[in-house]
Amino acid sequence: MSKLMKILPFLGDDDIKELAMKIINKEVTGIKLVMLFPFLNDSDLDELVDLMIEKNLGKQLTYVLPFASKKTIEKITNGIKNGTVKGVHEAALYPFMGEKELKVMFEDLVKEAIENPKLDDSDEDDLDDLNKDE
User: Fold this and answer.
1) Are 13 and 44 in contact (CB under 8 A)?
2) Given a cut of 90, is residue 101 above it in pLDDT?
3) What are the residue ranges spanned by the domains of the chain?
4) Half-sphere exposure of residue 118, counting CA atoms within 13 Å on the CB side?
């Protein structure tokens, strides 16, 4: 595997994309897709993200985030909101979102909290822990 890592920076875009596609389609095993992300160009990475969304590879999408364009981050965020992307925690996107997008998300969360004041499970667990100390 270390030999593969040493040669990746010198391969052409098409070769890296082809290998990534084979990994996603399970034609190649034993190589982690995440190893290729730093070497993919933006358009190839966008195409792979589309395929990963289609194949419901949510956990793998989390590893794309540091290398993804704003457009791709937005695509993943929208997919989470509309339910087409599963397996990615919305909080994982926060460091990669712009201030504007974070503000919209914050406002949506505040609105949701006002409309539905029921505590979520994590808040209840926190309250249970506080009550134990009394």
Assistant:
1) yes
2) no
3) 2-97
4) 3
